[in-house]
Write a structure and sequence with these properties.
The chain is mainly alpha-helical. It has 8 helices and no strands. The protein is elongated, with a radius of gyration of 19 Å.
Length: 205
């Protein structure tokens, strides 16, 4: 009699093959998936968004709120990466491209498949922005899910890995929000000190 874990793994693999099985049908889709799933396009784009929010000129209150959102985003990103590192030391899951009949159209990572580090990272960046900027946040969340789906399509993650990455990001965001609430005064003081830094004034847009 199979255990609940074995049942979930079977479902996970079935969904993976439904998504990954279409690889090779359309070259254009495969090429787009490789770009979206990479560690460059979406993560770098998100970094540029954070820079824009930090340096954009608005009223003092809006500027402070924006910088708090950026610091929350960076903190959630770091917390997500740390939690993934801890989980990787506890659980190791083989990558799906090691399964027979799977298709790999990407580089072959050697670390644990679960949870998805890249998805946890970009989702960790997106969630705090969504909490402050709904429209921009929705775009970032959509892009994050595209990255997660893309990494399944190219053959380097199971759907369960992406779900695990989402849970990691949500937990990290919750921890970050709690810590920012506790250390709110110190964080505001830090932002004010950075605001007065002359070398940062050069980058205002």
């Amino acid at each position: 009699m199979e255990t609940v874990l074995e049942f979930l793994v079977k479902i996970d693999q079935t969904i993976f093959f439904l998504i990954n099985g279409g690889v090779g049908t359309y070259t254009l889709i495969d090429s787009a998936a490789r770009i979206i799933a990479s560690d460059y396009l979406i993560p770098v784009s998100f970094s540029l968004v954070l820079i824009f929010i930090w340096f954009r000129e608005d009223t003092l209150s809006l500027r402070m709120a924006g910088r708090v959102a950026v610091l929350k985003s960076i903190s959630t990103l770091l917390a997500s990466c740390f939690l993934v590192l801890v989980l990787n030391g506890i659980v190791f899951r083989e990558r799906p491209f090691n399964l027979p009949d799977s298709n790999l159209i990407f580089y072959a990572p050697t670390d644990s498949s679960f949870p998805s580090n890249s998805f946890a990272a970009v989702m960790g960046m997106a969630l705090p922005i969504f909490s402050s900027y709904k429209v921009l946040g929705r775009i970032m969340l959509f892009a994050s899910f595209c990255l997660g789906f893309g990494r399944i399509l190219v053959g380097i993650h199971f759907p369960g890995d992406v779900v695990g990455g989402l849970l990691v990001a949500l937990v990290s965001f919750w921890i970050t929000v709690r810590l920012f609430h506790i250390f709110n005064r110190q964080i505001i003081t830090l932002i004010i000190l950075l605001e007065k830094a002359k070398w940062l004034q050069v980058f205002r847009i």
